[in-house]
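Duplicate of #3305? Posting structure anyway:
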């Protein structure tokens, strides 16, 4: 069994807290009896989907979900054999044994890469940090000839070169690991200066700069990959249908997609990075350029993962096989017709904001459509209560 190494243990802090450990599917699994895998950020919808589809095909593994905070939904899906909640990740790694770790959230990926990279399939720390730094990602894309938005990377409003701006423009933190994820859309130089100043102030002492970028109008597309040190093992592509907030945010509805050009650009970037593990390369199709334009690289599992799983690409299973040096099956195709919707994880909020609830709900019943409803009645009820509360309180816009 591979356990947390002594060096990794020594580098982890000894922070402790009130810990809740439960057998989520009725019976805790004894340590050492099966391949034990820790999945972080257990309450994320894509962590739940990841665990559900691993369990479907790999009955011999034991999945332990982890959350630094309270788990509200994951325990109701019965996809984890155990759930550890209200405990720092470093404490869980110090005090328990696992054969493998699958980090899901950006901070979890970074923490595992820094402390116990041998327990996960990850790129080197410097490669990971290079894609967390969105300025470096744009610079790499420019060197490779991959279309990217015109970008200014600055640390104060005074550094803004207004004559180089086109409007609307986009202002956002320059790091994936920033504490805030706000994106501002600015119509003129005054709004841009204000947005930069506000974003810098919110970031405080984090040492994270700001990107001011050309706004790319067009549909969002993503290439999702499992890579083996720069070599693609499994690929999937999607097109965004809706997102929350509607002005730009995580997908709430997406469709399977395929484009040779999208594959070419995404694989070219990940191969240049010698990427290892999973990643999403996000693009928009720019109608003016008639080409895909790079938005960012997410060096982790993506929120719309369940679409790929539904279409027949089980990234979790393949990641485990890669970690254990086991061969992957040779299939490379997937169902290009599938559309997936997350009604209670943002899609109904998007439809409410756009005043399209009735028409949008009809999408859930079309041919080739799927949702994550009905997987857990209790979780669906809790999410419904959350949605109603947010709408009543005016948080839907």
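Output from current build:
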């Amino acid at each position: 069994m591979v356990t947390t190494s002594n060096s990794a243990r020594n580098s982890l802090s000894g922070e402790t807290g009130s810990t809740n450990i439960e057998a989520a599917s009725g019976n805790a699994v004894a340590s050492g009896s099966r391949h034990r895998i820790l999945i972080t950020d257990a309450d994320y919808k894509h962590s739940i989907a990841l665990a559900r589809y691993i369990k479907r095909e790999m009955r011999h593994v034991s999945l332990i979900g982890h959350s630094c905070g309270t788990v509200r939904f994951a325990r109701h899906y019965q996809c984890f054999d155990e759930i550890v909640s209200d405990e720092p990740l470093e404490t869980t790694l110090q005090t328990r044994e696992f054969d493998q770790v699958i980090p899901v959230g950006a901070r979890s990926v970074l923490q595992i890469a820094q402390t116990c990279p041998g327990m996960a399939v990850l790129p080197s720390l410097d490669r990971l940090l290079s894609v967390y730094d969105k300025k470096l990602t744009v610079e790499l894309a420019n060197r490779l000839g991959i279309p990217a938005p015109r970008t200014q990377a600055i640390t104060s409003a005074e550094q803004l070169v207004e004559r180089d701006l086109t409007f609307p423009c986009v202002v956002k933190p320059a790091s994936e690991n920033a504490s805030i994820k706000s994106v501002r859309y600015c119509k003129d130089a005054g709004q841009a200066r204000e947005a930069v100043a506000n974003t810098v102030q919110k970031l405080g002492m984090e040492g994270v700069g700001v990107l001011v970028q050309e706004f790319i109008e067009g549909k969002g597309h993503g290439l999702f990959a499992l890579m083996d040190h720069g070599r693609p093992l499994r690929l999937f592509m999607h097109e965004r249908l809706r997102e929350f907030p509607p002005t730009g945010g995580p997908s709430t509805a997406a469709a399977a997609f395929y484009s040779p050009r999208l594959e070419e650009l995404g694989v070219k970037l990940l191969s240049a990075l010698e990427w290892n593990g999973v990643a999403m390369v996000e693009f928009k199709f720019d109608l003016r350029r008639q080409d895909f334009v790079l938005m960012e690289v997410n060096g982790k599992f993506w929120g719309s993962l369940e679409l790929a799983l539904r279409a027949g690409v089980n990234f979790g299973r393949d990641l485990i096989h890669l970690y254990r040096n086991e061969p992957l099956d040779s299939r490379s195709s997937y169902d290009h017709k599938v559309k997936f919707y997350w009604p209670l994880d943002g899609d109904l909020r998007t439809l409410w904001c756009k005043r399209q609830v009735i028409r949008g709900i009809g999408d859930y019943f079309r041919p080739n459509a799927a949702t994550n409803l009905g997987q857990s009645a209790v979780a669906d009820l809790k999410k419904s209560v959350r949605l109603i509360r947010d709408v009543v309180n005016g948080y839907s816009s």
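Confirmed duplicate; merging threads. Residues 225 and 235 are 5 Å apart (CA to CA). The first strand starts at residue 20 and ends at 22.
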